[in-house]
Design goal:
single chain; alpha/beta; 8-stranded mixed beta sheet; 7 helices; 8 strands; 30% helix; globular
């Protein structure tokens, strides 16, 4: 097993060491809305978004230690206090550490597409995951998914169009290949340089009647 590099950043949290349902207001020092990025990579997206939106508290989640370290370093260099980098598996973290209707937005950028047909059951975003995630979103909360993989982009776009609890923010399109002002990650730029198109799928949880 690869040795984990110790992360000493004050912005880092190990999900397995967090108390169940921790007080995020105490962790961040305020009651600002919570935003979750699943799979933060090297932190370029969350740092850009947290800089633009100081009124939101960002939880940037990743399972890979090296990515968490790079994300912490990037956020610290930017002088951000509204970001926490958490090393954990997404479902486990959400289930243990978040209250229902606690998220203002969720971003999932270019997750592993598991491209081979027999691997696709491993993909993060499917019907089971959306049904699991929905109760944690506030009414009106935004859900954004991006991928460079054609099959994955179409699958998620059609999946979300069938969700009664969500409304499409990109109508009449089910997806777009460009979304104005959306930060491009290092991986997005790499894929675009290779001639690939990015699929942007964006929905909002419906207001409860």
């Amino acid at each position: 097993m690869q040795r984990l590099i110790p992360i000493e950043s004050p912005l880092f949290l190990s999900g397995t060491e967090l108390d169940e349902l921790p007080s995020w207001a105490m962790i961040f020092g305020n009651h600002n809305p919570l935003v979750l990025e699943i799979g933060c990579g090297i932190g370029d997206f969350v740092v850009t978004m947290a800089t633009r939106h100081p009124e939101w508290n960002f939880i940037a989640l990743d399972f890979y230690n090296k990515g968490c370290l790079k994300s912490c370093n990037r956020a610290e260099r930017a002088g951000l206090t509204n970001v926490r980098i958490v090393r954990d598996e997404a479902r486990s973290f959400i289930r243990r550490c978040l209250q229902p209707t606690s998220l203002q937005a969720v971003f999932i950028n270019c997750p592993d597409p598991w491209p081979k047909r027999y691997q696709r059951k491993r993909r993060l975003v499917n019907q089971e995951f959306i049904s699991f995630l929905e109760p944690y979103l506030l009414p009106g909360a935004q859900f954004t998914f991006t991928t460079d993989f054609d099959d994955y982009g179409c699958d998620v776009a059609y999946l979300m169009s069938r969700q009664a609890g969500f409304e499409n923010m990109l109508q009449p399109e089910l997806w777009r290949h460009d979304l104005e002002d959306y930060p491009r990650t290092k991986y997005m730029l790499k894929f675009m340089a290779e001639g690939k198109q990015i699929y942007f799928v964006q929905y909002r949880r419906r207001q409860q009647e």
